[in-house]
DNA sequence: ATAGGGCTGCAATGGTATTGCAAACTACGG
DNA sequence: CCGTAGTTTGCAATACCATTGCAGCCCTAT
């Protein structure tokens, strides 16, 4: 199991340290995007700053992408597959459930093409939907 | 002129105080969405907290909407037209130019319909595009 | 005139990212 | 096996930013 985790990191050119393996393992267990504070609580008693830097490195290397769901703190989730360092390909919709307050990636919902005014060039698109998720529908 | 400003506030059931008129006037002069710090600098030497509360009230009453462009601080812009207290209708695209670092409302670019998975109900949609705006194209 | 409610300004709090620095660790060449 | 260089980690400190409490002010209605 741990072996597989190491491979993942190596494949992204990230030195597989104990801390990073722990964070990666924790991320793999999540069903939704989580904040730095969530990681901190799940991996007690780890240092917050270290976790911050681990996630930052993961982001730089294209292992995770961060989502700003308006909660103030960024959420992190593992990238699908084909993200390379520096260029993310996560053109999917992010969903924030106002009931359970979970942020999740709707990898199957692609972001539709957006028509921009003349002279505007798009580099990155982020679509955030808020509402009620399937688990919280009454 | 000031008379017109008062009308705007009254129409939204906001007591027209000096401070609020100033903020509204400042907002009307902007061509892009601005942060609380921007307002503070433009209206020196005003108290930041007061401006914060003014903007908050404007938001509650449907006069302005706030945009989270990922810069850490929310940006504010006047609502188009028919926003009512509590329910915003700003289904337009927000654009962040990575060159001039300005956030603007593309009121003509409507957010396309998003297909959500079964069981998901959408209440609010936010589409943030990052790239280069027409003024910054080489 | 006065009492009450809304508005403002100041001070203080709390949560967050972010950086500097020194200790710990790791990989590697002798 | 040892030491060294580079990476990683943990701690302390800093810097924003939103948000709240409180006290004084203004305006209005009675």
From TrEMBL, chains A, B:
Molecular function (GO) terms for this protein are: DNA-binding transcription factor activity; transcription cis-regulatory region binding; zinc ion binding
This entry's comment on the bound cofactor is: Binds 1 zinc ion per subunit. Binds 1 Mn(2+) or Fe(2+) ion per subunit.
Which residues participate in Zn(2+) binding?
97, 100, 133, 136
The record's keywords, sorted A to Z, are:
Iron, Metal-binding, Zinc
Q: Which prosthetic group or cofactor does it need?
A: Zn(2+); Mn(2+); Fe(2+)
A biological process (GO) annotation for this entry?
A: regulation of secondary metabolite biosynthetic process
Q: What is this protein called?
A: Fur family transcriptional regulator, ferric uptake regulator
